[in-house]
DNA sequence: AAATCGGGGCC
DNA sequence: GGCCCAGATTT
């Protein structure tokens, strides 16, 4: 048998006809050596018997091993729209986010807004409060927009992939998930788990971020999906990827489809091969380094003007971020971006200009200043940014302070600690605030430490 | 096709 | 410190 030197690709079919597309973009490929062919991803497919085996084994495994997750508890019994809403909320929360992280957020969300009609009545401030800490806040905004859209169009939930795709924030994956899980449409889904599982099943070495690769993974997932139980099958593949076929340490000995896995087979012929070689690694883009001065401005409202260490009588200045870009529309403490080498004097001068120009706070007159202290530094890591924050607490007396009413381009307000405790702050801002609270605490009662 | 958009848990 | 997670949108 000629192909026995390429066990990893025994399922692939060497295509004889030329492809009509892409050919002109490709460098002429040398004719493969006899007995060894790197298969083109377009040529990869599952055999019929393999499809049947994978469906049966995976569904059987899933029925026994599926995790008890809150969004799986809502049956489509009386109202399939309620099921669809639950799936929708869960799928949006699950984008780029682990199941364990989502569970509590999901339960709180469903308690506050049990149906799409409840959600449609919510404000963006409430939504941000419920979402705070989950990240990718655009998802929450789209969810609210989508709920309003659904209700305005009669409250009937979109049922097909094509209808679902028109809702803001619902892409190919989420449309497929809702349609298959809530409405039994026989469509596949492709997320990070599915890419990993299929890349291993078929030893796909193409760049998993490449559009052509993704397109072909969709094609292969479409071959696999079980038309009788599409929702369960899709969840089964993802469950497998999340629990057994994991990125770094797959548990192949427990895998229900190990007999169908080319990557595992390859390791038995090639001692240097690993299942974790698939999908292939992709170089990451480098992080940007940002620097900012975060100033927590506390206004003492008490008549005495003394350093009041209790919370009563204090207001804190918060500012609304622009509606586009990073952390869009979220509230934060006044912040200015810095250059890497800016020293304390420069930082404070920049802050003072900002406070004066944007909020009418003149902090140059020392008569207004009760205290001004460096609280500390904190490095907050985003996926693409490393943000170093210089945090300070600036306490000002209320008298003689001509504060602006917010009328300019910058939206701002003064709130108390009680409001700050519950409102939707991003994690980095929340961290800075907690540092300030701790600093105030230690200053007011040094003995208690 | 590449960049943007959060945060956290695990190694 | 790196990895990557039940991705979508914009440019």
Distance, first to last CA: 77 Å
How many extended strands? 7
Whole-number average pLDDT? 88
Whole-angstrom Rg? 28 Å
Structural commentary:
There is one protein chain. By secondary structure, the chain is of the alpha+beta class. It folds into two domains: 259 residues, Orthogonal Bundle (Endonuclease III, domain 1); 161 residues, Nucleoside Triphosphate Pyrophosphohydrolase (Alpha-Beta Complex). It has 15 helices and seven strands. Strands 1, 2, 3, 4, 5, 6 and 7 form a seven-stranded mixed sheet that branches. The termini are far apart. The N terminus is likely disordered. The structure holds a DNA duplex (11 and 11 nucleotides).
């Amino acid at each position: 048998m000629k192909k026995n030197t390429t066990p990893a690709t025994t399922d692939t079919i060497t295509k004889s006809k030329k492809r009509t597309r892409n050919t002109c973009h490709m460098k002429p490929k040398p004719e493969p050596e006899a007995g060894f062919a790197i298969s083109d991803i377009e040529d990869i497919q599952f055999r019929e018997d393999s499809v049947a085996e994978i469906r049966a084994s995976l569904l059987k495994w899933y029925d026994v091993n599926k995790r008890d997750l809150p969004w799986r508890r809502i049956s489509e019994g009386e109202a399939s729209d309620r099921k669809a809403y639950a799936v929708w909320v869960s799928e949006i929360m699950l984008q780029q986010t682990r199941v364990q992280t989502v569970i509590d957020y999901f339960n709180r969300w469903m308690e506050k807004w049990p149906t799409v009609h409840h959600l449609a009545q919510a404000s963006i401030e409430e939504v941000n409060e419920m979402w705070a800490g989950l990240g990718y806040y655009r998802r929450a905004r789209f969810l609210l927009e989508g709920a309003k859209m659904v209700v305005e169009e009669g409250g009937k939930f979109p049922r097909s992939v094509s209808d679902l795709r028109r809702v803001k924030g619902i892409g190919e994956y989420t449309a497929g998930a809702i349609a298959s899980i809530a409405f039994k449409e026989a469509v596949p889904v492709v997320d990070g788990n599915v890419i990993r599982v299929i890349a291993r099943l078929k030893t796909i070495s193409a760049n998993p971020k490449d559009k052509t690769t993704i397109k072909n993974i969709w094609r292969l997932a479409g071959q696999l999906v079980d038309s009788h139980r599409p929702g369960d099958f899709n969840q089964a593949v993802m469950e497998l990827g999340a629990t057994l076929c994991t990125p770094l340490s797959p548990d192949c000995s427990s895998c229900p489809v190990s007999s169908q896995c080319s990557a595992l087979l390859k390791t038995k012929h090639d001692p240097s091969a690993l299942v974790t070689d698939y999908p292939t690694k992709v170089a990451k883009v480098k992080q940007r380094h940002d620097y900012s001065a975060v100033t927590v401005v506390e206004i003492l409202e008490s008549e005495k003007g003394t350093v009041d260490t209790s919370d009563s009588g204090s207001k804190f200045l918060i500012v609304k971020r622009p509606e586009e870009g990073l952390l869009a529309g979220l509230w934060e403490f006044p912040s200015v971006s810095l250059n890497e080498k800016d020293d304390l004097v420069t930082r404070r001068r920049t802050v003072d200009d900002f406070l004066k120009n944007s909020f009418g706070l003149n902090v140059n007159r020392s008569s207004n200043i009760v205290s001004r202290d460096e609280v500390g530094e904190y490095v907050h890591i985003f996926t693409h940014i490393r943000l170093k924050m210089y945090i300070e607490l600036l306490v000002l007396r209320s008298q003689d302070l001509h504060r602006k009413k917010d009328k300019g381009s910058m939206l701002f307000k003064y709130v108390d600690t009680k409001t700050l405790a519950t409102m939707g702050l991003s994690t980095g801002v929340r961290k800075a605030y907690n540092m300030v609270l701790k600093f105030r605490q230690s200053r007011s009662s040094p003995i208690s430490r």
